[in-house]
Design goal:
The chain is built from seven helices and ten strands. The protein has about 280 residues and is α/β, with parallel strands linked by helices. The chain has a single domain (about 10-240), classed as 3-Layer(aba) Sandwich (Rossmann fold). The strands form two sheets. It has an eight-stranded mixed β-sheet, with helices on both faces. Strand 1 (about 30-35), helix 2 and strand 2 (about 55-60) form a beta-alpha-beta unit. Helix 3 packs parallel to helix 4 (about 110-125). The radius of gyration is 18 Å and the shape is globular. The protein starts with 9 loop residues before the first helix and ends in a 28-residue tail after the last helix.
Amino acid sequence: MFRSGFRILVSSVFLAVLSLSHPVTAQENVLIIGGAGETGSTLAKILIARGDKVTAFVRPSTNRRRLEGVPVEYVVGDAMKEDEVAVALDGKNFSVIIDTIQILDVTDQVSYTRLYENFVPLAKRMGVKQFLILGGGCNDRPREKCPLSPPLYTVAKNMTVAEYILRGSGVPYTIIRIGALIPGGPDDPDSGLRTGTSYLSTDLSSFGGIWRGDLIDQIIGCTGNEACINKIMIIDDPTMKPQLDHWLCKRSYETDTINFHDPRCGDMPPLAVKRGGATP
């Protein structure tokens, strides 16, 4: 169980990231897929602050405003196109790869399976020591035992197949499975807040809810951490049950589209969150 060992005290992480003059871990050479997005850029800033080298994999059209002034390197290509990924990573070597891309509409051209088919063989070739991904909360559960709506269950099934691509490759992995990620969008003004009470567990039977800021903290805690290698974990926060119930209410009314608000479920219950944290 990782419950006690991986719970992150927000104040201590915040001070460690901002005040230490040397890295809190051995320096890592990190590639963040989707590194200019909200989650990826936040991770990049924190990892650089602790002494890691960070490269962002971005598309040619990606807006890089979130990383302005940040000493991050770039490799450019479409993550869904094998040839572009191969060219972008030619001659590159990374110790850690983190995938932060969120896909809500899986197609033959855009999917988690296609992404990992493109990146995992190259990660194996360059000797990556950790490939960290975010998995779906239902994993192999049949449809009737999964609380996700039809469109999200389709995404979750694709994430599960993608997990097998990584796990079967021999590349050291870390998989953090997420049930409900709240707030819904990374550009939500409260997305960087955190409760400070999240935890990781190897008990995969739970379907938990997690605030986005706490997810960031847990990813940082596992990056380059030997204790997370070749582990599949769920992330949960027991203090978020009212918010999780509200999230599941919205899912229960969904058919073929994802509704970020449903009047039948009312408003999201308020959450006591901390305004400090690992985010610089």
